[in-house]
Write a structure and sequence with these properties.
Structural class: alpha+beta
Order of helices and strands: HHEEEEEEHEEEEE
Number of strands: 11
Radius of gyration: 26 Å
Shape: elongated
CATH superfamily of the largest domain: Rieske [2Fe-2S] iron-sulphur domain
Strand content: 25-35%
CATH architecture of the largest domain: 3-layer Sandwich
Number of domains: 2
Largest sheet: 7 strands, antiparallel
Helix content: 25-40%
Distance between the termini: 76 Å
């Protein structure tokens, strides 16, 4: 049987342990809050802007489509180039790294989301983008259905919503004899 002195020592040891143990969840909660705030700041304010003068790694030219296939703004042609899915778009205005010919402005982007590599899709309905992706813009956008990232083609593929912070890589387009060719991928 324990005497009173041993029992008191054991009780004070347990009390000290309990007074320290309650601090662990508080420290964990503060750490989680700090991490969450850091991530929110990084996603909201740390989005990379596309390079206004993009550098392209040359690849062998690949025929995309005749220029006539881009009849109206937001016409799109999907193709594979340099081993990755690409989308070429007719835009209402010129962007850095795009192609402008005969009053038509084109740009091509990788269809691989810069967040976790899911394929992005062109959504033309801005109300559907606002509802499904929680981003209200004025123009069609490239969207990632996996984690709800939104990329703005008129801003050179910049990530404007969702967890992606890097812009979509652009593909260099050239026009030869009325046919649009892909000729390089942005580094």
């Amino acid at each position: 049987m324990m005497d009173r002195k041993t029992a008191a020592t054991t009780d004070s040891g347990r009390r000290r342990l309990v007074t320290w143990l309650w601090r662990l969840p508080v420290i964990a909660a503060i750490g989680g809050l700090a991490f969450g705030l850091r991530e929110a700041y990084r996603i909201q304010f740390g989005r990379a802007r596309p390079n206004p003068d993009p550098a392209f790694v040359p690849h062998p030219p690949h025929a995309v489509a005749p220029l006539s296939d881009f009849a109206e703004p937001w016409s799109a042609v999907e193709f594979t180039y340099a081993g990755q899915p690409i989308i070429a778009l007719r835009l209402p205005e010129a962007i850095p790294g795009g192609l402008s010919a005969e009053g038509i402005h084109l740009a091509a982007f990788s269809r691989i989301c810069t967040h976790l590599g899911c394929p992005v899709l062109l959504k033309r309905d801005v109300e559907a983008i606002a509802f499904a992706f929680n981003f209200r813009g004025r123009h069609p956008a490239l969207v990632c259905p996996c984690h709800l990232s939104v990329f703005a083609p008129l801003e050179a593929g910049r990530a404007v919503s969702g967890p992606a912070i890097e812009p979509l890589p652009r593909v260099r387009l050239v026009l030869q004899a009325g046919v649009v060719y892909a000729a390089g991928v942005e580094t």
